[in-house]
Design goal:
heterodimer, A: 111 residues, mainly beta, 11 strands, B: 111 residues, seven-stranded mixed beta sheet, four-stranded antiparallel beta sheet, 0% helix
Chain lengths: 111, 111
């Protein structure tokens, strides 16, 4: 069964800290992995897409890594800001064309 | 450029009523997806389509039907709504193995 797990479920850190969010997935037959951000009551905002052939993708203060063989991805956020507070979702595109989501990590940056 | 548009944005149904949610995309994408999001559950895949005239079951298909008669539209139907179908529904589309784009969601309440 295809499963995507995100750890931790919730995280509170002081402003300015660097932090890492984790995503693990079963079944390594994937095309890519996409990280999203969701603010309360809002839709999904795409942050980074990392193809199965890639190891890393960077956008500003965000860096996503992918280790397909071990079924893991991390989202690194540098110099966190209160505006980074949101739920972060990991989504895996499998080779059977299903996109499966983790349950998300609720991030709270303390001013 | 509208992207992915969901109609309606809000709806209240009585138990046993039927309704159809419309997802429309103007990006000529082959792939389209329907999800539901419940508190603490992340996004769960209901049905998806890999092209016009095709549909496939996702993780939680029971109680829903879909149709993809036109490439740009993906319809999600509830034949006999139940309170357990109260949720926020999201639609997504993509081309090939590129990033998925999401609509803003439909908040459905079944009383």
């Amino acid at each position: 069964k295809q499963e995507v797990t995100q750890i931790p479920a919730a995280l509170s850190v002081p402003e300015g800290e660097n932090l890492v969010l984790n995503c693990s997935f079963t079944d390594s037959a994937i095309y890519n992995l996409q990280w999203f951000r969701q603010d309360p009551g809002k839709g999904l905002t795409s942050l980074l897409l990392i193809q199965s052939s890639q190891r890393e993708q960077t956008s500003g203060r965000l860096n996503a890594s992918l280790d397909k063989s071990s079924g893991r991805s991390t989202l690194y956020i540098a110099a966190s800001q209160p505006g980074d507070s949101a739920t972060y979702l990991c989504a895996v595109l499998y080779r059977d064309d299903k996109i499966i989501f983790g349950k998300g990590t609720r991030l709270h940056i303390l001013p | 450029n509208a992207g992915v548009t969901q109609t309606p944005k809000f709806r209240v149904l009585k138990t046993g009523q039927s309704m159809t949610l419309l997802c429309a995309q103007d990006m000529n994408h082959e792939y389209m997806y329907w999800y539901r999001q419940d508190p603490g559950m992340g996004l769960r895949l209901i049905h998806y389509s890999v092209g016009e005239g095709t549909t496939a079951k996702g993780e939680v298909p029971d109680g829903y039907n879909v149709s993809r008669l036109k490439k740009q539209n993906f319809l999600l139907g509830l034949e006999s709504a139940a309170p357990s179908q109260t949720s926020v529904y999201f639609c997504a589309s993509k081309r090939g193995n590129t990033e998925a784009f999401f609509g803003q969601g439909t908040r459905l309440t079944v009383v």
